[in-house]
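Pilot study result, target chain (408 residues):
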Amino acid sequence: MTASRVWVADRWMRADKTKKPSYGQGDRWRVVWIDPETKRERSRQFSKKTDADAFRAAKEHSLRDGAYVSPEVEAMTVGEVLTVWMSSKKRPKDSSLKKYEDAIAMYVRPRWGGVLLTAVQRPDVERWLSALIDGSAPRKANARTKAVPLAPATAKAVLLPLNAALRYAVAEGWLKKNPAYGVELPKAKPEPVIFLNYRQLEALVTATRSVATDADAVMVAVLGNVGLRPGEAVALQVSDVNLKTRRISISKTVTTDREGRTIIGHSPKTDSGIRDVPIPPHLIPELAELTDGRADDAPLFPTARGQVINLHNWRDRVWRKAKEQAKMPADLTPKGLRHTAASLAIAAGADVLVVQKMLGHADATETLNTYAKLWPDRLDQVTALMSAARSVALSACEPTGDKSHAAS
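Predicted structure:
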């Protein structure tokens, strides 16, 4: 008996046409095969011979072509795989795990939770992705928010845990290939790059002070002049500001825990985000007033109650109102003020390495890809200097004796 052999057994009748003790009990036809992984006998029963023959043929084909899966895997649902995959996650931060859990609960399980793992097909995933984008995808029952079309970036974030769980199933040998692999993803709209000038930035700071607090206004000024990420600014404590050396120390950022609560993370977005950034002199007086007499571990930019700012609430409570009052571009975001800080620094003469360090970019390539066009074109100046240097170098090599001889 080979591992690929599959046969149909009659549970009711013997070969000599006599009845077995099991005659009339349960399904008559039993398809039997040897599991190539466990080397143990497996079986499945059918009431009709035609169904048993069809299953036998399919099972033989799967064994011959290496597409065989065990009955346990055949019975496994996508929901079960999602649970196993999530329990395997050890490295992601709590904020990332929270995003996975929210996406799975809101969109992934309602569509895929009860679907057999082996039944998932790429066209089905593609249709679901389209449904996410047009707002027709199934959602969590009793969701507090109404169904709306998802932005391309959000749809991709929802697809991520499903794709990762299917990839995990492939690694475990439960699937031969990932049906979500190669699915065409929607093209995300790039973040608008908006540069404010000094007058516009000051108008935004003034508007923030009128709709909120001095601390909120100073935070906007720091974002636009120094280029911190909003999460880095909110995570700052009084002890991170050194007015004597005119430096702000960046070593952490705000994040969320598994319950969605705002907490201070132990590290910034990337390792290169750990840095000391310069404080422009015009911000010294306001930062001095903001830090004077306060505890070292107090939030540098606190809420009215002295707590760490919740950025989600702050955007609606402060940012939206200040932006409207100052008549700023509708697409301007708090994070977008990094572009303003970079542009002002470049205009003041900062080179690419200074801007890279100020913004906490991983490498200069990231800085150049975004801001290369802001550096002035110095080609004419450089080539003119090269010609002048050439003239000096050649004149220094001319033999003075020849000139004297020619004069005599």
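One observation from the pilot: Residues 152-171 form the longest helix (20 residues). A full batch analysis is planned for the follow-on phase.
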